[in-house]
Specification:
By secondary structure, this protein is mostly helical.
């Protein structure tokens, strides 16, 4: 995860300076290579059953959320290229929301039914 964070912010900075190819490479290559190495060489079973692994499986294991995180990164990168700090912030907000949505209070089904007339 640290690789993803460092890569994303480094890529936004490089795009801010208009280094397009290097910025895009920094955004995707380190995380991809590290993921491939970890999957091939590391026993991830103990992490799968950790509190963090359970959180990820429960709150972040859908293709829709993967695409939403990706979209947030793309928004950050477009904001960096155009030097729109506000858009970088919007993209970061999307990514943080997806990562932290499991920590937000959840409404129960019974609460939602009570609100309906």
């Amino acid at each position: 995860m640290l690789t993803d964070v460092v890569s994303a912010f480094s890529a936004v900075y490089l795009l801010w300076e208009h280094y397009l190819i290097v910025g895009v490479c920094v955004a995707f290559i380190p995380s991809t290579v590290l993921s491939m190495v970890l999957i091939a060489k590391v026993d991830l079973e103990k992490y799968k059953n950790s509190a963090f692994g359970v959180y990820v499986r429960k709150h972040m294991s859908s293709k829709a959320l993967d695409w939403l995180r990706f979209a947030g990164l793309m928004v950050m990168m477009v904001g960096g290229w155009n030097r729109w700090l506000w858009l970088v912030g919007v993209g970061l907000g999307v990514v943080l929301y997806v990562w932290m949505k499991g920590l937000l209070p959840q409404r129960s089904v019974s609460e939602e039914k009570q609100e309906q007339p």
